[in-house]
Amino acid sequence: MASGGSAIRGSRVGAGPMGEQDHGFHAERVAVSYWDALGNETVRYFAANLPAEEIPDVIDSPSSGLPAGRDKDNPPAVQKTEPYKTHLAYVKERRTEEEAAQLLEEALTQLRIRRGKIPAQS
Fold first, then answer.
1. Which residues contact 79 (CB under 8 A, 6 or more apart)?
2. Exposed e or buried b for every residue in 75-105, given b needs 16+ CB within 10 A?
3. Closest of 51, 45, 47 to residue 32, by C-alpha
4. Is the pTM of this model over 0.85?
């Protein structure tokens, strides 16, 4: 015969004398629907006595990872994020030595022109 623990078969471990209604599972709630830019609906539940100002207008949608708003006809736009660039991609974008020398020369020329236009102060 195998025996283990002192829990009565069919009982929940850690369940005390309080019922579910005492834990607040049966409190009055209101369902709020959110839609993301792809049309996915997410329903969140809030306490019925919560003021409307405290219910957020935008949440993150777990379906797509995009923001979701309460207005079905005008959901938030898809965020435009730049793709991750590796270090090698940045290195490839660097200018050549000739381009760098040309930019430096242009900057020095513009600086000399500006200094020539400024009257000398004594």
1. 66, 67
2. bbeeeeeeeeeeeeeeeeeeeeeeeeeeeee
3. 45
4. no
